C-alpha cells in the first residue's frame, strides 16, 4: 500500500526529432492509495473547519440543539424549538420586511448556493469554456459567497490565477442560460474577485406612473424612474450631456418628459430653463408653454441652437478668470437644450447648409457648454455615424430598445453588450426600459423611465403644484 509498483510507461505519439528514429515516452507514476486517502481526509477536515465560518447561524443552532438534548433531554429540545418557531412566526407577522431580510433571503441564498450554483457549477463553466486546464487537470473558479436581494442573486467568485474578469464578461449569455436566469452582469471588486449578478425576476415589468415633483430639485440627480434593484433612477443633467437612443415606441419621450418634470420647480423659480426643438411637432409641442424657446422647423431650430451658442460664449467670457464652476441663479440659469429627433438636423434635412450649421452648433455646445451651465439632451433613433457623428461628445448615454446588436456598442461603448446590456433584446411591450452608461463607469445599469401622460403635462403647464400632485396620485392609482 505504501510502496508504489515499478513505474509504467505510457507511449504517446509525438513528433520525432529531425534526423532521429526514436520517439520520446512520458513516464507515468501511479499515486499511492495512502496519499489519496490522506488528501480526502484533509479535505474533510478543511470542510468541517470552514463550515462554522460559512454558515455560522446553522452551525450554532445545531450545536445548541445537541447540547440541550444531551443535558436536558429531547422534551426540553422540543420545547425550545417550539418557542423558537413561535417567535419566528410572531416576527414574520409583525415585521415581515425585516424577517425577509434577515431570515428569508438568507435561507434562500443557502438553498440557491447548493441547489442552483454549486450543483451545476462545474458542468456550466466547463461547457462555457471558463474552466482552465493545466497538466491534464481542470481548474475552476470558486464560489466564495451567495447573497440574495429581493430581485437577484449575487454570486461572489474567486478567479483562477492567470485569468481575467473579461473571460466572464465574454460569457454572460452562456452563464445566464446555464443557471436559468434572464441575464447576467459582471462586477469587478478587486484582483481575482468578481460578482456575478443573476436576476430572479423582472422588477421593471410594470409601468411606472409619473413621479412626484421634488420640492427642491437636484439638477445633478433628477428622479426620472427606477433602477432594476428597486432604487430610484436619478439622471444627471447639470455638468454633462445626455444622448437617448431608441427605436420608435421605445420610450424616448418618457425619459425627456420625466427629466423636465423633475426640473419643474427650478424652471418656475427661474434658475433653470428648457429650450426645445421638436421637428415632429408631436412630442414637445404639447407642453411648449413650459419652454423658454421652442422651434419645430430647420431654420428656427438652427437659430435656437446658434443663440444658445452665443449665450454660452457670453457667459464663458464673463466667467473667464473669475469663476470655474456654474451655480444656477436667476441671472445665470441652467439651460437644457432638448433635441427630439436630432437626426433631422444632422442628416435628414434637405438643406446642406442647415445640416452644417446645426452640427457645428451642437458640437460647440457639447464640447464647451457643461462647465458654464449648458446641457444638451438629445434623442435619436439611428445611432450610426453617418446619421450622428457626435456621439462621443455625450458623456452619458441611454440605450432604449434598439434594432440590432451592433447598435448597443455604438451607443453605450465597446464591450457594453458583453457586460449584459442587451438593449436589442428589450421586449417591445416594455417602453421606457433602457440601459444607462454614465461617465466614469463601464457598468451599464438597467432602468425604466416613468411614464408622463398628457394629463400630467397639462398639469405641469398649468403651473399649479396641487394639480400636479393630484395628477400624480391618479396616475399611481
Automatic annotation (TrEMBL):
Superkingdom in the source lineage: Bacteria
Task: Tell me the SUPFAM superfamilies matching this sequence.
Answer: P-loop containing nucleoside triphosphate hydrolases
- What Pfam families does the annotation carry? FtsK_SpoIIIE
Q: Where does ATP bind?
A: 246-253
For the FtsK domain, which residue ranges apply? 230-409
- Chain segments annotated as transmembrane: 71-92
Recorded hits in PANTHER family, A to Z, give: DNA TRANSLOCASE FTSK, SPORULATION PROTEIN RELATED
The record's listing under InterPro entries reads:
AAA+_ATPase, FtsK/SpoIIIE/SftA, FtsK_dom, P-loop_NTPase
Alphabetical list of Gene3D superfamilies matching this protein: P-loop containing nucleotide triphosphate hydrolases (3.40.50.300)
What is the recorded name of this protein?
DNA segregation ATPase FtsK/SpoIIIE, S-DNA-T family
Residues forming coiled coils: none
Which of UniProt's keywords are assigned here?
A: ATP-binding, Membrane, Nucleotide-binding, Transmembrane, Transmembrane helix
CDD domains tied to this protein: TrwB_TraG_TraD_VirD4
GO MF annotations, alphabetized = ATP binding; DNA binding
Amino acid at each position: 500500500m505504501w510502496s508504489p509498483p515499478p513505474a509504467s510507461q505510457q507511449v504517446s505519439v509525438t513528433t520525432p526529432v529531425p534526423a532521429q528514429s526514436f520517439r520520446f515516452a512520458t513516464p507515468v507514476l501511479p499515486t499511492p492509495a495512502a496519499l489519496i486517502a490522506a488528501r480526502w481526509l484533509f479535505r474533510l477536515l478543511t470542510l468541517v473547519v470552514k463550515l462554522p465560518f460559512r454558515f455560522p447561524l446553522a452551525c450554532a443552532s445545531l450545536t445548541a440543539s445537541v447540547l440541550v438534548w444531551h443535558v436536558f433531554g429531547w422534551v426540553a429540545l422540543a420545547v425550545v424549538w417550539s418557542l423558537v418557531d413561535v417567535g419566528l412566526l410572531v416576527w414574520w407577522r409583525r415585521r415581515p420586511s425585516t424577517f425577509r431580510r434577515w431570515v428569508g433571503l438568507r435561507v434562500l441564498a443557502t438553498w440557491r448556493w447548493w441547489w442552483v450554483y454549486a450543483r451545476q457549477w462545474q458542468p456550466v463553466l466547463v461547457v462555457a469554456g471558463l474552466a482552465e486546464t493545466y497538466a491534464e487537470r481542470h481548474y475552476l473558479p470558486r464560489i466564495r459567497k451567495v447573497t440574495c436581494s429581493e430581485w437577484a442573486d449575487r454570486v461572489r467568485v474567486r478567479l483562477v490565477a492567470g485569468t481575467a474578469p473579461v473571460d466572464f464578461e465574454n460569457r454572460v449569455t452562456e452563464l445566464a442560460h446555464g443557471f436559468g436566469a434572464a441575464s447576467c452582469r459582471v462586477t469587478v471588486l478587486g484582483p481575482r474577485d468578481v460578482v456575478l449578478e443573476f436576476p430572479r425576476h423582472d422588477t421593471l415589468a410594470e409601468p411606472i406612473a409619473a413621479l412626484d415633483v421634488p420640492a427642491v430639485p437636484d439638477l445633478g440627480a433628477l428622479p426620472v424612474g427606477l433602477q432594476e434593484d428597486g432604487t430610484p433612477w436619478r439622471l444627471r443633467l447639470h455638468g454633462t450631456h445626455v444622448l437617448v437612443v431608441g427605436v420608435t415606441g421605445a420610450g424616448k419621450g418618457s425619459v425627456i418628459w420625466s427629466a423636465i418634470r423633475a426640473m419643474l420647480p427650478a424652471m418656475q423659480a427661474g434658475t433653470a430653463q428648457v429650450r426645445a426643438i421638436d421637428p415632429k411637432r408631436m412630442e414637445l409641442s404639447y407642453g411648449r408653454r413650459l419652454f423658454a424657446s421652442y422651434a419645430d422647423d430647420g431654420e428656427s431650430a438652427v437659430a435656437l441652437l446658434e443663440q444658445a451658442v452665443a449665450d454660452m460664449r457670453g457667459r464663458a467670457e464673463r466667467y473667464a478668470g473669475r469663476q470655474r464652476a456654474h451655480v444656477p441663479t436667476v441671472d445665470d440659469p441652467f439651460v437644457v437644450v432638448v433635441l427630439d429627433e436630432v437626426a433631422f438636423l444632422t442628416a435628414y434635412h434637405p438643406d446642406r447648409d442647415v445640416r452644417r450649421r446645426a452640427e457645428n452648433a451642437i458640437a460647440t455646445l457639447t464640447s464647451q457648454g457643461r462647465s458654464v451651465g449648458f446641457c444638451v439632451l438629445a434623442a435619436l433613433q439611428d445611432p450610426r455615424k453617418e446619421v450622428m457623428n457626435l456621439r462621443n461628445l455625450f458623456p452619458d448615454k441611454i440605450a432604449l430598445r434598439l434594432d440590432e446588436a451592433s447598435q448597443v456598442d455604438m451607443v453605450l461603448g465597446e464591450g457594453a453588450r458583453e457586460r449584459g446590456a442587451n438593449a436589442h433584446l428589450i421586449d417591445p411591450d416594455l417602453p421606457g426600459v433602457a440601459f444607462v452608461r454614465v461617465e466614469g463607469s463601464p457598468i451599464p445599469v438597467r432602468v425604466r423611465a416613468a411614464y408622463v401622460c398628457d394629463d400630467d403635462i397639462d398639469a405641469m403647464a398649468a403651473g399649479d403644484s396641487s394639480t400636479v400632485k393630484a395628477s400624480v396620485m391618479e396616475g399611481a392609482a
